[in-house]
Amino acid sequence: xxxxxxxxxxxxxxxxxxxxxxxxxxxxxxxxxxxxxxxxxxxxxxxxxxxxxxxxxxxxxxxxxxxxxxxxxxxxxxxxxxxxxxxxxxxxxxxxxxxxxxxxxxxxxxxxxxxxxxxxxxxxxxxxxxxxxxxxxxxxxxxxxxxxxxxxxxxxxxxxxxxxxxxxxxxxxxxxxxxxxxxxxxxxxxxxxxxxxxxxxxxxxxxxxxxxxxxxxxxxxxxxxxxxxxxxxxxxxxxxxxxxxxxxxxxxxxxxxxxxxxxxxxxxxxxxxxxxxxxxxxxxxxxxxxxxxxxxxxxxxxxxxxxxxxxxxxxxxxxxxxxxxxxxxxxxxxxxxxxxxxxxxxxxxxxxxxxxxxxxxxxxxxxx
Length: 368
Known about the structure:
By secondary structure, the chain is an alpha+beta fold. The protein has helices spanning 6-16, 39-48, 134-150, 179-187, 221-225, 236-243, 247-252, 261-265, 305-308, 329-335, 350-366, and strands spanning 21-26, 31-36, 67-73, 84-85, 97-102, 105-110, 116-120, 123-128, 155-157, 160-164, 167-173, 192-195, 199-204, 207-211, 218-219, 257-258, 273-282, 291-295, 341-346. The strands form three sheets. Strands 9, 10, 11, 12, 13, 14, 17, 18 and 19 form a nine-stranded mixed β-sheet that branches. An eight-stranded mixed β-sheet has the order 1-2-3-8-7-6-5-4, sandwiched between helices. A two-stranded antiparallel sheet has the order 15-16. Helix 4 crosses helix 11. InterPro entries: HprK-rel_B, P-loop_NTPase. This is HPr kinase.
């Protein structure tokens, strides 16, 4: 561990770039306050998080925020540190991030954008070309919320989430199997949206609860053109281009778009908490025949555990050694005890799967 201190390194940056603009966000009774030196960045973030804006008078109220974050728009600073590359995940070749652990926190550097993220002990700072990399600032804000929830007993799931009223369903799947695509197909059937790619869950006094992130789905063209509710995400010309493509080429096209829930499905359709009534696991494939859905016992299916388990990664700091999360198969099995788990196998069929899951949610809601 480096003996340098996070706040000492950050102080000259913050003194040189006073963060005079503030934004208050309400993430399900967790107050997040963002300060920035850029009015343009403040407006961009306000537009992105428009479903979660808190009262303006909370923007600058000292001591009231549960999570405080500063984002400085500037050239990327050289702090004179030697970073350790984060090795890519299995199947990926590029090193995207590097980091250094300090006496009181961690710094993560994004190699492609030169964005720096400093965090530890409740101090959170993003610095660099923030306006050109708004999505990384959004991710940093959401990562602070993940840390907050994990440090209060949640396990992290690699899953999307939808709900009918207070009754929620998490949807997980192996890479490329379409958990976000399926969640948005279920949304067409009148559900609310809870989360796109990460879900946190824990046992509470009234049962198993899941929490989502204020992160809009980032979807590919194949998802867009096969869901009428997503028509406004791309221009008519882009839609025509995508529809003219071969099906395999379309689904493999790596071009991402933000799908704002209010624009695609109407206002008031985003909630960040629901009762976790079930977990759906996608284990299907194209050309795999008819869709098959069955309830499974996860204790007998360790092959399915990697579908939903998710480690916290570089952007997490435990709130003391006692709270270092034990993200093991046993901890997930214990948490999910009594929660129905559905395996969707056979062939890919988003419409049939969406109808089945909507019926499952209705039946679960009726039992409460």
